[in-house]
Design a protein that fits this description.
The protein is of the alpha/beta class. The protein folds into four domains: 4-115 and 246-327, FAD/NAD(P)-binding domain; 123-240, FAD/NAD(P)-binding domain; 390-533, 60s Ribosomal Protein L30, Chain: A, CATH 3.30.1330; 548-711, Phosphoribosyl-aminoimidazole Synthetase, Chain A, domain 2 (Alpha-Beta Complex). The protein is 30% helix and 25% strand. The strands form eleven sheets. It has a six-stranded mixed β-sheet, sandwiched between helices. Strand 8 (95-98) and strand 9 (104-105) form a beta hairpin. Helix 12 packs parallel to helix 16 (586-594) and helix 14 packs across helix 15 (571-582). The longest helix has 21 residues, at 486-506. It starts with a strand and ends with a strand. Bound molecules: flavin-adenine dinucleotide. Flavin-adenine dinucleotide binds next to helix 1, strand 3, helix 2, helix 7 and helix 9. Residues 16-20, 41-44, 47, 50-51, 53-54, 85-86, 112-114, 130-132, 160, 163-164, 281-283, 293-296, 298 line the site of flavin-adenine dinucleotide (FAD).
Length: 712
């Protein structure tokens, strides 16, 4: 038995990446709690900082200035990032419910999901809501690309509506001098602010030529018209800046809530009846100290939440949070000018804007300057008992049975014994006249999220069947789960197996069985079965001189995920790469067959060059490779240029000696791409020279001379 350290740690699930959780993660990065792991679930990777949103719309800030990269923050804190939309909480079952994937069980839960936009009849179809801000950004960009509107109406006379109407005005100033602007307020402008501040605000609107309609109650919105209770207003661009409402799921969660549906919490930030659930920011109300909804309160709750979650786990006394009565309000009111208000004091001018800018940028710098804080996932105490290896490392039956009961493991008629009636081994009957095609492939996790990892690991393994032109049938899985308590292992296993079976089902495959074991880190291998008619398999041999060499997916996953581990990627690069890795090679395989393909393989660990050389050897020929034509994933070029490569790349570089004219190409920026190992890569095929090549990138030509020759 080979003992390995145990990490039977507690886990805190953070639901939503609001201001409080972002700050908590940062604090955690500096002061991790040994033996406790963090998981953040967020529907977006980039969380907006709304204080700078008006400046973003006005063009004073970039998207990078105003968004927190939650994935990077999680890496710094050693936390797991799960990209998913929360659809509810089941307080009785202690589950966080997620869209389109299985729930996560929690031991400790903290909720910071903010509010949802309040609904006015017709607003979904005919208005642009400020929240969620991620969608606002997209709609704002397409709005700017369209022709200038005649009349912009902003609904909502609070601080957000006031700032936004001025920001839109300033953004369009240069390009749409004839556009009219109106701010509609159900009550008075900036209700709750001192009269003098309201007067300043009115003056700002007047100076900018913006109409203000107070006491205008919007009944509904139609295409091009805001319908008030007594008046109506024609407007071809309508923005909604009304106060938001509580997410609807709270009422069905079993958590105590206020009359208007927000999560009711004690001053310890714990839910009134559920000590293991905390809620912060706009989604919650401290029943002893209700306050208006503002980011500043969410920010102030962070140190208390940080202390209380840790104290609660250890059964220590919790702190009581007393939110401040008044706070400094800084409102952008024109190009690089702002109004400050606190209590009865107020001021206005460029210097106020500079003050606001300094505060906002300082706040955001906390999340961009994370170097030196790189966390280790799941910090452990080191004083834990040792765990068994060998058969003793098998995952407990209860965990496995609980997970299998939640999966769809139905089998078709070809399966004599599968998971429906599990036995010691699976039995399948190949259809008459067909041959069984088998392959095994797997690796340890390269991303946080076990669901997406399960999906990609399955796609990667199935790709071998598509490369052979086989019809996928079934799979067996070997899963190694990181050590943890039963709840954590069940969560990971359910997510990874649901992801895996989702991909298998998309490919028309069934899961027949497998093996689960405990280990240091999550890894998945699949043995995949397919069928093929005798003598019809696509193989690496068969390339013919003059054939085109084509590739079905862009390259660069190795360098991108190496850079991701070093926190040196942009979120959109990783999202795009994951989407490509999830793509099935099925269509490409079918199309290659229809083109009369001569030879085929899939590009994986040995990189493009390694796999191309295998084909050349099997076919007794060589290849000219058009280095400039290689398709590259977004960001991969930048990662290669920064000298970032996968740990397997140096080993793959030994294939370079088979490039006949390497000396002339040593400095070409795409040369390292030839050695980049691919996860769930594309199909590389040799097709007749007269084939239509749509859907593929032509990357070279087959020639007689053995080896690989780089050409322009
Ligand atoms: C234009 C504008 C300007 C503002 N200016 C200021 C200001 O200057 N000062 C101030 O104090 N306040 C300001 N506010 C108010 C401020 O935005 C909110 O009070 C603050 O954002 C609330 O923070 P929070 O931490 O509760 O949640 P949020 O900042 O709303 O964050 C919630 C997070 O949870 C995620 N989430 C939400 N739903 C789900 C789901 N179903 N599944 C997964 N993740 C989810 C979201 O994507 C988001 O990342 C402004 C608001 C607007 C609209």
């Amino acid at each position: 038995m080979q003992p390995s350290p145990i990490t039977d740690k507690a886990q805190i699930l953070l639901a939503g990446g609001g201001h409080t959780h972002a700050l908590l993660l940062r604090m955690w990065a500096m002061h991790p709690l040994p033996g406790v792991s963090l998981v953040l679930v967020s529907d977006q990777v980039l969380a907006p900082y709304s204080g700078m949103l008006p400046g973003l719309l006005a063009g004073e800030y970039t998207a990078a200035d105003t968004h927190i990269d939650l994935q990077r923050l999680c890496q710094a804190a050693g936390a797991t990032f799960i990209h998913a939309r929360i659809t509810g909480v089941d307080a009785q079952q202690q589950q966080l419910l997620l869209e389109d994937r299985p729930p996560l069980r929690y031991e400790w839960l903290s909720i910071n999901t903010g509010i949802t936009p309040s609904h006015i009849s017709g607003s979904d179809e005919h208005a642009i809501a400020l929240k969620p801000v991620s969608q606002l950004r997209e709609r704002w960009q397409s709005f700017l690309a369209e022709k200038a509107p005649h009349h912009v109406a902003v609904i909502g006379g609070g601080a957000a509506g006031f700032e936004i109407v001025l920001a839109i005005h300033d953004a369009l100033q240069a390009t749409a001098a004839n556009t009219a602007f109106t701010l509609l307020s159900a009550g008075g402008l900036l209700a709750g602010y001192p009269l003098a501040v309201q007067q300043r605000a009115r003056q700002c609107l007047q100076d900018a030529g913006i109409n203000l309609h107070e006491d205008f109650r919007v009944a509904r919105i139609e295409a091009g018209t805001v319908m008030g209770e007594t008046h109506q207003l024609e407007a071809d661009a309508i923005f909604l800046a009304t106060p938001g409402q509580a997410p609807a799921w709270i009422r069905h969660s079993g958590l105590a809530c206020t009359d208007d549906g927000f999560i009711a919490v004690h001053d310890s930030l714990q839910s009134l009846q559920h000590d293991h659930v905390f809620a912060v920011g706009d989604v919650s109300v401290q029943v002893n100290h209700p306050r208006p909804r503002a980011g500043v309160y969410a920010v102030r709750q962070a140190p208390v939440l940080f202390h209380n979650l840790r104290a609660a786990i250890h059964g220590q006394p919790l702190k009581q949070h007393r939110p401040q009565q008044r706070f400094l309000s800084l409102l952008r009111c024109g190009p690089r000018t702002a109004i400050a208000a606190k209590g009865g004091l107020h001021a206005q001018g460029h210097w106020v804007w500079q003050w606001k800018d300094t505060i906002d940028r300082r706040f955001m710098r906390q999340f961009s300057e994370l170097s030196g804080m790189t966390g280790t996932p799941g910090h452990t105490s080191g004083s834990q008992p040792m765990r068994c290896g060998g058969c003793g490392a098998k995952v407990g039956k209860t965990v496995l049975d609980t997970v299998l009961a939640q999966l769809d493991v139905t089998c078709d008629a070809d399966t004599v014994i599968g998971l429906q009636q599990p036995d010691d081994a699976a039995i399948i009957t190949p259809p008459k006249g067909m041959q069984l095609v088998q392959s095994v492939d797997g690796f340890r996790s390269f991303i946080d999220d076990p669901f997406w990892f399960g999906r990609i690991a399955a796609q990667h393994a199935i790709s071998d069947l598509h490369a052979m032109g086989a019809t996928p049938h079934s799979a067996l899985a070997h899963i190694t789960l990181p050590h943890g308590n039963a709840v954590q292992m069940e969560n990971t296993l359910l997510q990874v197996m649901t992801g895996m079976t989702r991909t298998l089902h998309e490919e028309g495959m069934q899961l027949l069985g497998g093996h689960t074991a405990e280990g240091a880190e999550l890894s998945v291998s699949l043995t995949v079965n397919g069928f093929i008619a005798a003598r019809s398999a696509l193989t690496k041999a068969g390339m013919k001189t003059g054939d085109w060499l084509v590739l079905s997916k862009p390259l660069g996953t190795g360098t991108l995920f190496a850079a991701h581990m070093q926190q040196r990627t942009q979120p959109e690069w990783i999202e795009a790469a994951l989407a490509v890795m999830l793509q099935s090679n099925r269509e490409a395989s079918e199309r290659l067959r229809s083109l009369g393909v001569h030879a085929c393989t899939d590009v994986t660990g040995f990189g493009l060059l390694g796999h191309l050389l295998e084909m050349c050897e099997a076919s007794h020929c060589g290849a000219e490779l058009f280095l400039d034509q290689l398709p590259v994933l977004a960001g991969a070029h930048a990662c290669l240029a920064a000298g970032i490569e996968s740990t397997l790349a140096p080993e793959n570089r030994r294939f370079a000696e088979r490039i006949s004219n390497l000396a002339n190409w040593q400095t070409h920026p795409l040369l390292p791409l030839l050695f980049d190992p691919q996860t769930s890569g594309g199909l590389l095929a040799s097709i007749p020279a007269d084939s239509a090549t749509e859907g593929f990138t032509v990357i070279g030509r087959v020639c007689q001379t053995p080896g690989v020759h780089l050409v322009l």
